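Long-time lurker, first post. I've been practising inverse folding by hand and with some scripts of my own, and I keep getting stuck on stretches where the structure tokens seem ambiguous. Below is the full token string for one chain I'm working on. Before anyone asks, I'm not after the true native sequence, just a reasonable design that respects the backbone. If someone could post their per-position residues I'd love to compare against what I wrote down in my notebook.
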């Protein structure tokens, strides 16, 4: 998938503003791309736009989304291809399985509905496939539990049902919107291991959204860092986490606790994330930046290409390393 200049607008009676601006990214066959940033940075909206499931009141204003040569969004307008690929070629795992699953329909029926709609198989074959999928997801006694309702499953098991539904039609690309956020650490690890196994077995490409740097470090080969609706740094995960070239990326790394090298105090990013509908002038991060220049308070800040297929939106990127206090998630995750 290739995304160019994606801009998403919020429209209602009181407000019209761009909350995601000029996002460009790509993911190759079998590759995992991470999108990381604080809550409200535009990560989930970007992911939903790739599947054409933006919430009410938001819309793609401009940009293009291309999947395997098929144009899904052109000049901000969704094409007929999007509907035919959604669920069949492109699957999605949502953050809150409790909200995403219909509470009054058995989980098995929700999975078989997707299978029958996109593959045309008969009900009996779809049921057999559903039981196989639930068993593959690590749900015990799948033949019995296929007839249960979402409230009869734990949070981790509901998330496994959601993954089963997302991969039921053997998609090539899986979009993951913070699928482990609400889970305990043990269940989170199990879900991440399951996703890794699916990638290896099926050659799945993945775009994984999270605010957890440790999860991104474990799952993804490349990473995009978003702030206030814009990508401010991108590159190979190991290089970005080892030597960030934007002060926001560095702030995220240093504010994340490291259980292998505990620090008496975390280095917090000062201030608060701005309202994405009313961002500050110039570099969006300049009010919180430890090294702003006068030039940072005006003009636009597109990504600057760096060696090694990296990019940053910081005009003082060569000085970012001098601000570092401690090592980040890559040090402990390997």
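-- Answer (accepted) --
I ran through it position by position. Result:
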């Amino acid at each position: 998938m290739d995304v160019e200049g994606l801009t998403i607008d919020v429209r209602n009676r009181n407000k019209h503003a761009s909350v995601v601006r000029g996002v460009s990214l790509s993911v190759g066959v079998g590759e995992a791309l991470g999108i990381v940033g604080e809550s409200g940075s535009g990560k989930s909206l970007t992911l939903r736009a790739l599947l054409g499931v933006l919430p009410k009141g938001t819309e793609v204003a401009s940009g293009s989304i291309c999947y395997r040569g098929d144009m899904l969004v052109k000049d901000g307008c969704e094409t007929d291809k999007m509907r035919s690929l959604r669920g069949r070629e492109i699957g999605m795992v949502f953050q809150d399985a409790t909200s995403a699953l219909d509470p009054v329909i058995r989980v098995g029926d929700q999975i078989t509905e997707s299978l029958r709609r996109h593959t045309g198989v008969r009900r009996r074959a779809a049921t057999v496939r559903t039981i196989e999928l639930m068993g593959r997801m690590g749900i015990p006694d799948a033949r019995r539990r296929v007839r249960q309702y979402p409230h009869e499953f734990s949070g981790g098991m509901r998330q496994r049902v959601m993954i089963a539904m997302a991969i039921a039609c053997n998609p090539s690309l899986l979009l993951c919107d913070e699928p482990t956020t609400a889970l305990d650490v043990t269940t989170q690890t199990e879900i991440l291991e399951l996703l890794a196994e699916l990638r290896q077995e099926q050659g799945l490409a993945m775009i994984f959204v999270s605010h957890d740097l440790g999860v991104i470090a474990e799952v993804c080969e490349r990473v995009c860092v978003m702030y206030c609706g814009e990508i401010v740094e991108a590159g190979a995960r190991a290089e970005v986490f080892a030597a960030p070239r934007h002060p926001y990326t560095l702030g995220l790394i240093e504010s994340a606790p490291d259980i292998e090298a505990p620090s008496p105090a975390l280095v917090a990013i000062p201030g608060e994330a701005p309202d994405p509908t009313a961002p500050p002038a110039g570099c969006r991060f300049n009010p919180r930046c430890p090294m702003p220049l006068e030039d940072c308070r005006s003009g636009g800040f597109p990504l600057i290409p760096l060696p090694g297929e990296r990019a940053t939106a910081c005009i003082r990127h060569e000085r970012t390393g001098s601000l570092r206090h401690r090592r980040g998630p890559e040090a402990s995750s390997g």
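A couple of notes from the structure itself: The mean pLDDT is 89. The CA atoms of residues 158 and 188 lie 13 Å apart. Happy to go over any region you disagree with.
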